[in-house]
Amino acid sequence: MNHDLAAVNLNNISQANPSLNLMFSVNKNLVSFVQKTVNNLQYSSYKLGGSQFDPERGVYVLDCSNVVDRILENVYPNAYTNLVNSTGADNPATSHYFDFFRDLDDESDGHWNKINDVEKLQAGDVLVFRYKNSRGNETGGHVMVVMDKPVRVSDVYFVRIADSARSRHSEDTRQQNESGIGIGTLLLKANPKTGAPSAFAWGVNSDWNRRVKLAMARPVEVNA
């Protein structure tokens, strides 16, 4: 349990707004779209395989990958099409996001930039986990949109993210026992030499999960 982090003022993290003037237009649009979606939300629930994404009525019943799919499809269809074409998946799941991000070159492929260091995350980036069991086999995953630059406290990074999940994170827009779309804070640890993410915690009172693989990438504009 992260009891030693309970004293951290998460309000300062959750209330920090990303500096949109310093962001690329794609990232700015992604964050603005997500924030508007959460602000106008009328009903949301997490459902594995769910696909109801209705901004007009503010109704969202879907899982983590479907919500990121729809965000990208609405805000940056070129990046989404690139992901779909590269993975061969009509509706990319966490496994497709992970494999796609992992296989990106360190140089931009035109629509996505690979991110290897947690400290380089910024608002509008996409973060994906793939869980492993004791034998090292993948058992599922989770994908989300980063809403602000990570805040480092000692060896822990507090990251504001948006996702569709079964449960809330710390300082979350979702109410207790409420699932679906929301914005909250999770925690990451990174390799001290490389900056690569090595573990995560769902919130400040959650256990660290080290049986996990993580990948990160940033959608980028393509100059004609």
Task: Kindly list the characteristics that best describe this protein.
224 residues; alpha+beta; eight-stranded antiparallel beta sheet; 5 helices; 11 strands
> How far do the termini sit from each other?
49 Å
In sequence order, what are the helices and strands, one letter per element? HHEEEHHHEEEEEEEE
Q: Note the overall shape.
A: globular
Q: How many individual domains? A: 1
Helical residue percent band: 10-25%
Beta-strand portion reads 25-35%
Largest sheet, if any? 8 strands, antiparallel
Instruction: Kindly state the number of beta strands.
Output: 11
In short:
The protein is an alpha+beta fold. The protein has helices at residues 10-14, 25-39, 64-75, 77-87, 94-103; strands at 43-46, 51-54, 59-62, 112-115, 126-132, 138-146, 151-153, 156-165, 180-190, 197-201, 212-219. A hairpin with a 2-residue loop joins strand 7 and strand 8 (156-165).
What do you see in this structure?
The protein has 224 residues and is of the alpha+beta class. It has one domain (3-219). It is 24% helix and 31% strand. The chain is built from 5 helices and 11 strands; from the N terminus they run ααβββαααββββββββ. Strands 4, 5, 6, 7, 8, 9, 10 and 11 form an 8-stranded antiparallel sheet that branches. The chain has a 3-stranded mixed sheet with strand order 1-3-2, with helices on one face. α3 (64-75) packs across α4 (77-87). The longest helix has 15 residues, at 25-39. The termini are far apart. The model has no long low-confidence stretch (mean pLDDT 89).
